[in-house]
Amino acid sequence: MGGDAVAHRGEGQGPGRAGPDPNLVAVVLAAGQGKRMKSSLVKVLHPLRGRPLVQHVLDAVRGAGASRVIVVVGVQAERVRQALEGAGVEFVRQDRPLGTAHALLTARPLLEGYRGDVLVVYGDTPLLSAADLRALVETRRAAGAALAFLTTRLPDPTGYGRVIRDASGRVVDIVEEADCTPSQRAIDEVNAGVYCFLAPGLWSALEQVGRGNAQGEFYLTDAVKIMAGRGDGVVTVSAPRERTEGVSNRVDLARLESTLRLSRLEALMRQGVAVVDPASAYVGDYVEADSDAAIAPATVVDGRVRLRKGATVGPLAVIRQRDGG
Fold first, then answer.
1. pLDDT tens digits for 59-96?
2. Beta strand 117-122 with 189-198: parallel, antiparallel or unpaired?
3. Active-site residue, from 17, 36, 308, 320
4. pTM of this prediction?
5. Domain extents in the chain
6. 306 included as an active-site residue
7. CATH architecture, domain defined by 6-244
8. Are the C-beta atoms of residues 92 and 107 closer than 8 Å to each other?
């Protein structure tokens, strides 16, 4: 490799949904409990905009062109399977929580003989865009690298794996927070946890991952060091933090809910819908509204509902599609 290829995306979301790519498989890691949610419900099933967190991720990988989607389940495996029934995904179970590298290895039996791209994402990153994921795939292919992964820069990178580069700017490692030296902790470029591997090199790297870290787990990030060290070629794609943010706790979930709610209302207003008080209105993703429709304060409109031109809903109103309606 002649050097590290870093692609920077603009503010837009890029082109629309990609068609199915037979050389692209996605593996969604969704086996953990999510203890910081302080909930009996596994994290990836917590609702965001009325749908499980993991469903948003599935939409993104499908939009990026994944022709197959494999979901790694563990805690509450049957509950996750039931929630995703009809989603057209395959499941594999991680029986023991031995780390992210081990979770990904559990998908290997479903991919025997496959030699294309493996897109790896976490099931708790609901704001990922299909355009960013597609850019990751295309960057890996254009560079002829064995791996491309998303990075982002944070004013306060505490808690995140730092991206370690050599003097020429090439990636050599990702070091988790607990294992960082003081100088590494000062690095503001962090791993966003989204990877595109070329399959043949992936499995051999994962087989070399050990547990010599503070958590005693098989880290997927160690595969980056292994691949870089043997000269496979590792490149990065930069993405905005707001699209790579994961959900760790209920505070994060509420913040993302608010972000998406306001984004939806702003889109409606740009289409000519009057939203009198965006701070108190909620409109679901499947609602359609003509220009000059109006939504009054403290109003909820959800489900497959259409507001026609001149209609006013609220104040203090709730309109929801009935089940089966």
1. 999 999 999 999 999 999 999 999 999 999 999 999 98
2. antiparallel
3. 36
4. 0.87
5. 6-244, 250-320
6. no
7. Alpha-Beta Complex (3.90)
8. yes
